[in-house]
Each structure stands twice: as structure tokens, then as C-alpha cells.
Design a protein that fits this description.
- The complex is a heterotrimer of chains A (235), B (292) and C (393).
- By secondary structure, chain A is α/β, with parallel strands linked by helices.
- Helix content of chain A is 33%, strand content 26%.
- Chain A has a domain of 156 residues: Rossmann fold.
- In chain A, the strands form 2 sheets. Chain A has a 6-stranded mixed beta sheet, sandwiched between helices. A 4-stranded antiparallel beta sheet of chain A has the order 2-1-4-5, with helices on one face.
- The N terminus of chain A is likely disordered.
- Chain B folds into 3 domains: 109 residues, no CATH class; 29 residues, no CATH class; 138 residues, no CATH class.
- Chain B is built from 9 helices and 4 strands.
- In chain B, α5 runs parallel beside α8 and α7 packs antiparallel against α8.
- Chain B is elongated and about 100 Å long.
- In chain C, α2 crosses α9 and α2 packs antiparallel against α10.
- In chain C, 54% of the residues lie in helices and 19% in strands.
- Chain C has 393 residues and is of the alpha+beta class.
- The radius of gyration of chain C is 31 Å and the shape is elongated.
- Classes of the chains: A alpha/beta (235), B alpha+beta (292), C alpha+beta (393).
- Chains B and C meet through α1, α5 and α7 of B and α2, α7 and α9 of C.
């Protein structure tokens, strides 16, 4: 299933010496320090590192959820620093998918309705969103659970619904923050395999993880420490 | 003691004197020692520009028939009358013989006038009921009753008290409903904690006891805070209405009984709401509570 | 399906217990608010309706007091003739009221005895007919029941009209009918007849005195009142509006003031509670909201969701508050009408369209203001920090 819209030759994200500083009462904390990184279409990148090294902060900046304190961040040719909140929201809605460690499915909606949510926000007509939702749920192996609420799903199933939701508007880039963090190993394997499939179908994938097995599935593995990218391995 | 009033003439006359005040305040060249004196209300003095020492002429009718001169001996603050709220007390006080002389029908001989009521102060106020019964029995056509049973006035305030109680009841119901909604939300926030405690092995009763203690504490503090707020509001409301109606009447008073009633309602209500919401939650299994 | 209002509905339905309680709380508070709005003008509207029903639009008294509360008009007959001759006046009715004892067989009742001149009647016949000639009167329902009298029966009247204690002569009247007098109070007897008959019963035939004159203008009550004052400077003329204005400054004002105070307290109470409910609800869902923002929901959209939640709670509760408020109004009206001296036909709570409009506007404003703080929380939510905190917690 092709989820991607756009040219395969352009860079999706280009980060140039981005830094993120958090002002704290005890003094400023530099979470990300001078990171330069670019993500091409279809790439599969894993970001590893100890807790507090700035992995999630970097992910949030790449996903335009957070803005760098300095440096330049360009997303599909748009300088993110020059965009207002509404423009950044639209960017995330149409071009970026997020998968969270804690799933964050809306409990009062069914699986299908959760997947429809970003599409409705993007103005997709009802019949088109319903069709797309069913397709995505089939894609993640939950076609029969479309009308179930999150409370009726297991952890792995919820994460798969979350992946389907992230793919709803055909994003060029999928960002996953510890997607298997709350899952057991076997379930995590299934989710990891699904993410591989998403990437194979054309969506660029950046995964932040502690899990060496999950990281090992990526073609580029970035290691972070103290806010910097310490090393990069291509495999 | 109140004499049974068949006619309202004398009472009307008192106010007719006040309303039909034929003011010819003139400066006396010399004060006549025998000139009768009167007191006027503060409000009347302000409205008519009267001062102590002024001489005024009072008559019982608008035509000024039989007007007599009086000297203002003083200005007084009228006793606030809740039944006359909103009306400006244009009144004078005078000696009864002066009033009777002023308002007597020429055909009625002096001493044969009648009055509306006679107020009596007893040596022993607790004897009022017995005294009233005895007077009523011994004086046909006369009705005597203790002032605590004043007809009309008492009924009015009984009705107002019921009205305010009804309003308070509705407010308490609304507050209880909101309180329940809030406690359900707040108890739900601690669902996982409760679930873990259950999984550890604490019985539901033990957790409920903890919740009860917390509920009583929070409800007590909240009720005391509410009382403090009410005391503050009491001052504001009284000042506002006293200004608005130019009266010394007290409209709101937080008595110890009122405060105790509020506490007696609020604290158990708050504690019960907390325990009730927690009990509903704890009916579920520990695993279900602890699960995200 | 995912319009903000539908989304808000789903969010509320997700927690049925707290949502139901919130709506019921708003309904109770809204009912109280509605009643306070009805009370603020109720007495005035009721009195206006009573006065209008009587058919007179100007009342003339001897003093600067309300009709029946001040001195009598000593030359009522002459005054009626003079006023009746004025171009803006259609009719003049002299009205006088005295205390009386009514006797029938072994039954007795204290009553208000009303004498009315001319042909316009101030009462509504329930049974029987109007007095047609001398020696006839009408009784109110309470008097008829107490004395067990029916139209055609004879009742003895002792009227106390003078300033002395002389025993009044008993006078027999025939009951022409049972009527409803506009200012009748509960459990109080009253009887009404021609003014001449009342004077006879008082032992002062042809006295020509009246408590006040009730005047019907030809259309312009204010002009008629001015003309009366010009013609008779010793008398005071009040239009119905002026009369109500005078009464408003007196006892009625208490209820207006208390309704304002209670309405203010009610609104403040509702505002605080709804704000707390919404804020707690939002704080419990910060992770979800941050996730939605990360997915691309705009700031405007998430803020609108909170506003719609407030609108749904207050809107549903407000709709429920209408029937609740009406039931409560009937109950409270019943309590207040037990005050002595309140006419049976007078009400403290009167339905009026403006009150409902104000009620709706106030609730809408409450929803808006109550949602302001939680909307602010949601609008300023730091997405990344919230997501991080959710993981840590």
C-alpha cells in the first residue's frame, strides 16, 4: 500500500545545527546540542541513546511539535521557524505521522473512528475517510476489530491502530517514539515488523528506541549522548 | 398588650400629621417656656431642612385646621421597620397628651379619646403569656398578646424564613450534585493508586477509611472557608442594603446556630460524596483499576 | 461525525456519571436563576395585570399615599362630578372601604365592606349577579363559604365607619351574587355594594366620602391625571404606571433586590463549579490533547472542543432547568403568597418572555466565561513537554 505523496528525490527534513535549550529554575538545560541531520524519502532511521540524552526532544523537533532554540530546521522546503502554530499544525496533519509510546487513542471512539480522526480534520469527505480507515485497519491486521473501542483491545492492537491512525493522511514521514516501550517482546516484534512494512511501502521512518533489536532493523542508526549525535552506523 | 383596633383613624392620624406637615418654620424671637416639644426622624429633618430648636406648626389635616406650634427638641434615628422597607420615615414623636389634643374631634371630650395600643414592660418577661391571658379575660373587647406573637408581622417573617430555607435547599441540592461530579472525577484520578493498593492486599474497607478521613478533612476545611466567605459577604450585603434603604436594619446575620447548621450539612455531605464515589470505584477489581 | 460539537458529545458520553451530574447541577442552578429572574419583575407584572383588569387607569387620592392608605376624600361626590366633566375622563368611580361584621344565623365573619359608586364594577361575578338595586351586595367566595350563604340569602352587616366605638346599627342586605374581588386576600371575607348602601350602613347617608376615586380615561391616562391635578390641586392623581412605581419603591423593592443578589450568587456559583469541572476534565486529558495536537489538530480546534463541551453541559442543563424552574416557581410562589395581605390573584413569579431570554443569555455567558480558563490551558499546552510528562508519569 503506497502511503506517500511527493517526489522521491527531495529531502524531507533538513536540520542544521539545531539546539534546544530548556530554561529551568536551577539553570538552563541543553537537551539537544548542535545536531545536523537530514532525512530522505523512504529512509529508515533509528535513534538510540541512554535516558535523557535528547532523543525524544530531537524527534519532537523533527516532527515540528517543538521548535529549536537555535539552528535551522527545514521541512519540505519550509523553514519551520518562520511558520506560525496553525501552519505547523497543518504540516503535521498532512505530512507527518506520530506514533507514541502510550498510544493515545481516544477511548470514546472506536478503532475506525480513531483512524478517521486526522482525516476528518484534514477535510476528507466521510465516505472516503471510512474507506481509507477500513483499508488501513486491514493493512495493520485489525480489519475485524474496526468497531471495537481501545478498552477492548490489547496493547499491541492499540499500537497497531495508532500506526494506522498515523498513516491516515498519507504522511511522507512517520515518527515513532518508543513504539514498543509498553509492549512485551513478542508483541513488540509484531509492531516492529509492521513498521518495517510501512517503511518498505515508501514512508520515511524515524524510530526513537531503547530496544537494540528494534534499532537493528533500521538502515541508519544514530547514537545520541548528552544531546549530541555521537555516532552513526549505516547497515 | 394590644388593644383590639376597630378603627385605624388614630394610627392614620399619626402619619397624617407627619405627611401633612404644615411647616412654617419661623425663627422665634423668644422661646416660650411652655411650648411643647417633639422629636423628628433624621430622614424628615434632612428632607425638610429641620434642626434642633426649630419651631414648626403641626395640624391634623392638609388645611392646617387647629395647627399648633411645637419646638423640635431632638432628631432621632427611627427603629428600623422591616414592614416599611423602602419608604422614607417621615415621622415625629410627641407626648401622647399633645397628640390627643391635636387630633381630638371637638365633639369628643378630653380624656375620652382612644389609642391603638398600649405597650407594657413586665417585671418578669417570662410571665407575658399568663399576663396576656389574664388581661384578655378581665377586659372584654381587649386583646392582649405577647409581642413575640404579634399578628401579621410574625407571619410575614415566618413566610420569608420558609422562602429562604427553600432557596437554601435548592442551592444545597445543586451544590451536592456538582460535588458528586467533582468527587467522581477526583477519585478517578487516583484509580491506579487504588488499584495497586488493592493488588497489594489492602481491603477495600481500609481504603475507604482513608478516603473518609481525607473527605472529612477536606470538607471541614472547605466548610470553614465557606463560612469565612459568608461572614465577609454578610458585611457587604448588610452595608449595601443599609445604604440602599437608608436604614439600620440588619439583613443578614451569621449566628452561631446558622454556622453550626452549615457545618453540620457541609461536612457530612462532602465526606459522604467522597466515600460514595470511592465505593463505586472500589467495586471494580484491583487489576481493572490498576490497568491503564 | 468529527465536528467539534459531535466530538464534545462523545467526550461527555464517555464519562456518563460525571456528565449527567454536571448537567443536573447546571439544571438546578439554572432553575434557581430562572426563578430569580421571574421574581425580579413578578410582583410588578402581577400588580399591573390586576390593575389593568379592574379597568381603571387613574386613581385619585386625598394625600400623597397609595389608594386606601391615606386620608379620605371628604367631598368625593363633588370631586367625582368635577373630574367626570373633564374631557379626557370617561368615568369616575368612588370607592370606600370599611371594616364590618357579617352575620348569618349563628355564623359571623369579619369582613372588608366596600362601597362603589356608579356602574363600573370592580369585581367578577362567579355565581348570581351584580347588585341591581338598593339593599343588595355581593360576597367573596370565602365569605360565602364561611357564612354558608348563597345568592338570594339575607346577611346582616354591622359596619364600623366612625372614629368612635359606638355600636353600629345592623343592616340587612340580600346577597345578589358571589364574586371575585381583585385584591381579595386568602381567608379574608369581603363584601361589596353601592356606595350609598355603605353610607346607610355606616349611619351617615349622603356623606359623600371615599377612600379614593378610580378613573377611566378616554385613552391618555397621563393627560387625564394631569388634568385632574390641574382641576383639583388638593388631590393627587396616579396613573397605573405611577402607582406601580410607588409600590415598587416600597415593599416590592425587597424582592427585586433579593432576586438580584440571589441571581448574582447563583451565576457566580455556577461559573465556579463549571470552571472547576471543565478544568479538572481537561487536566485529566492533557496527554490526549497533546497527542491530537501532535497529529495536526490546530490550536483553534482543540480550544473549540473545550468550548463545545461547556456549551453542551450548560445547554443541556439549561434546557432542563426550564421545566424545573417552572415547578420550583410554583412551589416558591405558594410559599410567598402565604404572607398576610397578599391578594389571591397576585403572584410573585410571573412568566414573561424577557426573563427566558435573559436566562438564556446569562447561561450562554456563563458557559463562555467558565470555559475561558480551560480553553487557555488547552491553547497554551506545550505539546512536547506534555507528551514527555505523560511518559514519565
Amino acid at each position: 500500500m503506497n502511503h506517500v505523496v511527493g517526489s522521491v528525490n527531495d529531502t524531507i527534513v533538513a536540520a542544521d545545527r539545531i539546539t534546544r535549550v530548556f530554561p529551568m529554575p536551577a539553570g538552563p538545560v541543553v537537551a539537544v546540542r548542535d545536531v545536523t541531520l537530514s532525512i530522505a524519502p523512504g529512509e529508515h532511521i533509528a535513534i538510540r541513546g541512554p535516558s535523557g540524552c535528547g532523543k525524544s526532544t530531537l524527534l519532537h523537533m523533527l516532527g515540528c511539535v517543538d521548535a529549536p532554540s537555535s539552528g535551522s530546521l527545514v521541512f519540505e522546503g519550509h523553514d519551520v521557524a518562520g511558520l506560525n502554530d496553525r501552519a505547523r499544525s497543518l504540516l503535521r496533519l498532512r505530512h507527518i505521522g506520530f506514533v507514541f509510546q502510550r498510544f493515545f487513542l481516544l477511548p470514546m471512539l472506536t478503532a475506525a473512528e480513531n483512524v478517521e480522526l486526522p482525516q476528518a480534520e484534514a477535510g476528507v469527505p466521510a465516505h472516503a475517510r471510512r474507506r481509507r480507515s477500513r483499508e488501513l485497519l486491514e493493512y495493520v491486521g485489525l480489519g475485524a476489530r474496526a468497531d471495537h473501542r481501545p478498552s477492548q483491545l490489547s496493547g499491541g492492537e492499540m499500537q497497531r491502530v495508532a500506526i494506522a491512525r498515523a498513516l491516515a493522511n498519507r504522511p511522507r514521514l512517520l515518527l515513532a517514539d518508543e513504539p514498543t516501550g509498553e509492549l512485551d517482546q513478542a508483541t513488540g516484534e509484531h509492531v516492529a515488523a509492521l513498521l518495517d512494512r510501512v517503511n518498505a511501502d515508501g514512508t520515511a521512518l524515524v524510530v526513537v528506541t531503547h530496544d537494540p533489536v528494534l534499532a537493528g532493523r533500521a538502515r541508519r542508526v544514530l547514537t545520541m549522548r548528552d544531546g549530541r549525535i555521537e555516532g552513526e552506523v549505516r547497515q | 398588650m394590644e388593644a383590639h383596633r376597630r378603627h385605624g383613624a388614630v394610627n392614620r392620624c399619626v402619619f397624617a400629621v407627619a405627611v401633612l406637615l404644615a411647616l412654617t418654620a419661623f425663627l422665634p424671637s423668644a422661646q416660650t417656656p411652655e411650648m411643647p416639644t417633639i422629636l423628628v426622624t433624621r430622614q424628615l429633618a434632612a428632607l425638610e431642612g429641620l434642626a434642633v430648636g426649630d419651631e414648626v406648626r403641626l395640624a391634623a389635616d392638609a388645611g392646617g385646621t387647629g395647627a399648633q406650634t411645637f419646638r423640635i427638641a431632638g432628631i432621632y434615628e427611627p427603629t428600623p421597620d422591616p414592614m416599611r422597607l423602602g419608604s422614607v420615615p417621615r415621622a415625629v414623636r410627641m407626648h401622647l397628651p399633645d397628640l390627643l389634643a391635636l387630633t381630638r374631634d371637638p365633639a369628643v371630650p378630653a380624656g375620652a379619646e382612644h389609642v391603638d395600643s398600649i405597650n407594657i414592660t413586665l417585671v418578669d418577661p417570662a410571665d407575658a403569656e399568663r399576663f396576656s391571658r389574664e388581661v384578655t379575660t378581665r377586659a372584654p373587647g381587649v386583646l392582649a398578646r405577647p409581642t413575640t406573637q404579634a399578628a401579621g408581622l410574625g407571619t410575614t417573617f415566618v413566610v420569608l424564613e420558609r422562602f429562604h430555607t427553600a432557596i437554601a435547599a435548592v442551592t444545597i441540592i445543586a451544590a451536592t450534585v456538582f460535588l458528586l461530579a467533582l468527587t467522581i472525577m477526583l477519585v478517578d484520578e487516583r484509580r491506579e493508586t487504588a488499584g495497586v493498593l488493592r493488588l497489594i492486599g489492602l481491603p477495600a474497607r481500609r481504603i475507604l477509611l482513608q478516603v473518609l478521613v481525607e473527605g472529612v478533612l477536606v470538607a471541614s476545611v472547605g466548610a470553614l472557608f465557606g463560612l469565612a466567605l459568608a461572614w465577609g459577604a454578610e458585611g457587604l450585603i448588610n452595608r449595601f442594603f443599609q445604604w440602599r434603604y437608608d436604614t439600620a436594619l440588619v439583613f443578614v446575620r451569621i449566628t452561631p446556630r446558622v454556622a453550626a447548621t452549615c457545618l453540620a450539612i457541609a461536612v457530612p455531605l462532602g465526606a459522604t460524596a467522597t466515600v460514595g464515589a470511592s465505593w463505586a470505584l472500589l467495586r471494580r477489581g484491583g487489576l481493572r483499576l490498576a490497568r491503564r | 461525525m468529527m465536528a467539534p460539537l459531535a466530538f464534545a458529545w462523545r467526550a461527555l458520553v464517555r464519562q456518563p456519571a460525571r456528565s449527567t451530574l454536571a448537567v443536573l447541577g447546571v439544571a438546578a442552578v439554572g432553575a434557581l436563576l430562572l426563578d430569580m429572574l421571574l421574581l425580579s419583575e413578578g410582583l410588578v407584572l402581577s400588580m399591573r395585570e390586576l390593575l389593568d383588569r379592574m379597568g381603571f387607569d387613574v386613581r385619585v387620592t386625598a394625600g400623597d399615599t397609595l389608594p386606601g392608605a391615606g386620608p379620605e376624600i371628604a367631598d368625593a361626590t363633588a370631586a367625582s362630578a368635577a373630574i367626570g366633566a373633564l374631557p379626557g375622563v370617561r368615568s369616575v368611580t368612588a370607592i370606600r372601604s370599611e371594616a364590618a361584621d357579617l352575620h348569618h344565623r349563628d355564623r359571623q365573619a369579619d369582613a372588608a365592606f366596600i362601597g362603589v359608586s356608579g356602574t363600573p364594577r370592580v369585581w367578577t361575578i362567579l355565581r348570581g349577579r351584580d347588585p341591581a338595586g338598593r339593599g343588595e351586595l355581593v360576597l367573596n367566595q370565602y365569605a360565602a363559604e364561611t357564612l354558608r350563604l348563597v345568592p338570594g340569602a339575607v346577611v346582616t352587616v354591622r359596619a364600623y365607619c366612625g372614629d368612635d366605638d359606638a355600636a353600629p346599627p345592623p343592616v340587612e342586605f340580600r346577597v345578589a351574587g358571589v364574586a371575585e374581588l381583585p385584591f381579595d386576600t386568602p381567608e379574608a371575607a369581603s363584601a361589596a355594594t353601592f356606595l350609598g348602601d355603605l353610607e346607610e350602613a355606616c349611619g351617615t347617608p349622603g356623606a359623600g366620602r371615599a377612600d379614593f376615586l378610580a378613573v377611566t380615561s378616554t385613552g391618555d391616562a397621563a393627560a387625564a391625571a394631569a388634568a385632574i391635578t390641574a382641576a383639583r390641586a388638593d388631590l393627587r392623581a396616579f396613573t397605573n404606571d405611577q402607582l406601580i412605581g410607588r409600590v415598587q419603591q416600597g415593599g416590592f423593592t425587597y424582592f427585586r433586590q433579593i432576586s438580584t443578589v440571589l441571581a448574582t450568587i447563583t451565576i457566580t456559583f455556577a461559573l465556579l463549579l463549571i470552571t472547576v469541572l471543565l478544568t479538572v476534565s481537561v487536566n485529566q486529558r492533557l496527554g490526549e490533547i497533546a497527542a491530537l495536537r501532535a497529529l495536526g489538530f490546530s490550536q483553534r480546534r482543540v480550544v473549540l472542543d473545550v468550548l463545545c463541551e461547556a456549551a453542551l453541559i450548560v445547554g443541556t442543563g439549561g434546557a432542563l432547568s426550564l421545566p424545573l424552574g417552572l415547578v420550583l416557581a410554583v412551589w416558591l410562589d405558594g410559599i410567598l403568597k402565604r404572607m398576610p395581605g397578599i391578594p389571591t390573584e397576585m403572584h410573585f413569579f410571573v412568566l414573561e418572555p424577557q426573563a427566558f431570554v435573559v436566562h438564556g443569555l446569562l447561561l450562554a455567558a456563563t458557559a463562555l466565561v467558565a470555559a475561558a480558563y480551560p480553553m487557555r490551558i488547552v491553547a497554551r499546552l506545550p505539546i512536547a513537554a506534555t507528551l514527555r510528562n505523560e511518559v514519565i508519569s
